[in-house]
Structure formats: C-alpha cells, structure tokens
Amino acid sequence: MSNGTVAIYPGSFDPITNGHIDILERAIRIFSKVFVTVARNPAKRPLFTVEERMHMIRESIQGIRNGDKIEVIAFDGLIVECARECGATAIIRGLRAVSDFEYELQMALMNRRLSQDVTTVFMMPHENYSYLNSTIVKEVASFGGDVSAFVPPVVEAALKSKFHR
Fold first, then answer.
1. CATH superfamily entry for domain 6-131
2. pLDDT higher than threshold 50 for residue 129
3. CB 95 within 8 Å of CB 11
4. CA–CA dist 39, 118 (Å, integer)
5. For the chain, what is the total number of helices (H) and then of strands (E)?
6. In this structure, are residues 45 and 119 in contact, taking their beta carbons and an 8 Å threshold?
7. Which of 138, 120, 99, 125 is nearest to 24 (CA)?
8. Which residues contact 65 (CB under 8 A, 6 or more apart)?
9. SS3 of residue 72 by DSSP
10. 3-state DSSP helix/strand/coil percent for the chain, to nearest 5?
C-alpha cells in the first residue's frame, strides 16, 4: 500500500534486468510514484544509449501492476538533486549481496549528508536474481549465451542485435 511518498530508482540500467524489474515491482507497492532515473554518465561507456535504455525500461514495465505510477527519466549530476527535482524523498537501491553493502552504505551516507530530506531505502531482489547484474548479462549475451531468464524480451532482442547473434 503506497503512502503518498515519491521515490527515485537510479541506475545505469545498461541493460535493465529481471532483478531490476523485481525491485521495481515491489517498490511501486510501497511508494505512490517511482521515477526510474537512467544515469547519463559520460565516464562510463554503456553498451546502450540513454534513449535505448529508457525505451527498454518503458517496454519492460508494460505489464507491471500499477505501472502507470512509474515514470522513466534521464538524469546527470547528483542523485539527491534528481530526487529534489522529482519531489522524491526516497532513493531506492538494490542490494544483491553483502559485497554491495559497503559501497551502497557510503553512497547513502554521502547522500544523507548532501540532503537530509532524502532517505535511501535498500531492497533485496528475489533470491533468483541475487547473483544477477547487467555486466554479467552483457558478457553472457556477447558470447551468444541464452539470457532469456535474466532479462525482459525487449532487452534480449536488443542484446542479440548489439552482438549480431
């Protein structure tokens, strides 16, 4: 049941995986609106453009219950500034394993220091996705492996197209 609180779910989503979708499906049950915020990070070299990533996210959330409460946007700069612009008071971050925690804790503490009005909410994906990340998916796809269990169909097709398989 949502409580009127707006959240952002930031990431590179290069590409979005079923683990991301799992987090998003549960987040939209907690928050009244969730902005999926796709990072424009010139330091990273993504496989997909920001526009391609946004398109894949929009296609992937078509069947999500309460999907009309999800908005996909691009951002650059500080996450807390993006939250402020969206009217969000929560930042959703996924934790797959203990190894994610140290980095995410540091980011959460810095974000709290930058803005007392924004709280980081950690969510764990379903255990079926606890090992899954975009880098692994891209590597498997680059060698022609079957990624259909890890990503939505639109992403699988895009990966096949990128790797010409």
1. HUPs (3.40.50.620)
2. yes
3. no
4. 18
5. 6, 5
6. no
7. 125
8. 25, 28
9. strand
10. 45, 20, 40
Q: Read off the pLDDT of residues 10-50 as tens digits, 9 standing for 90 and up.
A: 999 999 999 999 999 999 999 999 999 999 877 778 999 99
Q: How far is CA 61 from CA 21, 64, 72, 144, 155, in A?
A: 7, 5, 10, 25, 12
Given a contact cutoff of 8 angstroms between Cβ atoms, the answer to whether 20 and 53 are in contact is no
Alpha-carbon separation of residue 87 from 29, 37, 38, 118, 144 (angstroms): 18, 13, 17, 10, 42
User: For the whole prediction, is pTM greater than 0.85?
Assistant: yes
For residues 26 and 68, give the distance between their C-alpha atoms in angstroms, rounded to a whole number. Answer: 14
Radius of gyration of the chain (CA): 15
Alpha helices in 31-78 (DSSP H): 50-60
**Single-letter amino acid, residue 4:** G
Q: What residues are annotated to the active site? A: 20, 44, 96, 134
Which tens digit of pLDDT belongs to each residue from 148-160? 999 999 999 999 9
